[in-house]
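Bench notes, afternoon.
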Amino acid sequence: MVDYIGIADIQQLVHRLGTGTFIHRLAGEIEADYRRWAEFEKTARVASHSDVGVIELMPASDGAHYAFKYVNGHPKNTAEGLLTVTAFGVLADVATGYPLLLSELTVTTALRTAAMSALAAQWLARPDSRVMALIGNGAQSEFQAIAFHRMLGIRELRLFDIDPLASAKLERNLRSLPELADLAIVRCGSTAEAVQGADVVTTVTADKRNAVILEPGMVRPGMHLNGVGGDCPGKTELHRDILLRPDARVVVEYEPQSRIEGEIQQLPADFPVTEFADVVAAGGPFRRTADEVTIFDSVGFALEDFSALRFLHLLLGEQREASRQIDLVPRLDDPKDLFGGVLGGSPARARLRRVA
């Protein structure tokens, strides 16, 4: 029997801890895995692109466990009442090849993306950062706001989206959370207005195109830019001249993948970047001066999904009585008799059962 996490299960797991605590603990797991970067078998995700979106597989392994995520990105889905991003994933035992966990990752991807953003900002942003501009107020925005409030101490959030209803939705959801009572929320009329006075700027827009969400004139010394929305070939959010600022330093997750999908796809292949694992390994402050502009060119890497699946499996172990399982793999009296054990008259067939 294989452990299973569906939507109802992830709701229970997150509510039991609280969203902020869940994200914070998940960030700790991600950081721990980045600290053992050399142990991982790494590869850029395998992507199948179409005119309307992308479907991807994201594998990673540390030699003891193997994980993969199936994920799509279809920005026009919302016009049909569908999610832009859906996902599920598997954690498996390398020694046997048997799956240990089958889990939803639609909600978990949103949680791990926010956890990674805030984790990177802890290493890259100024420690006194308290104001964040959030450009793009769709499905990922609440998670980013909660993560930065919890992990960075953000106390003022400045919102902008080309759809005012999205900003209204975000503000409504955030104001319903008692733990965010000390968070000031300001709705703005443009990106330029939103970034005024911001220490951190997070861009998380959905359109599958090369866009200029941030112009060079909007960026001030000392800012930390968290570029989340640019995450596939032909999809960017930052003007290339921001990346080329002499006072800017760019951090990526896995350089071979980011060269294809990140903001740096706009620049030559020899443009210098630093992988996040190297930032963590160095141990000290990444910033050389308070006025440097740091840029986290985030595209999402499979190690983070590996961490998320491992974390979910750990949480299930903490409350085994509430966990669910499914019969994804047959159990046979004779492992060489698959036909007889499953489709024939073998008594082993009676041992197969479903747990919903």
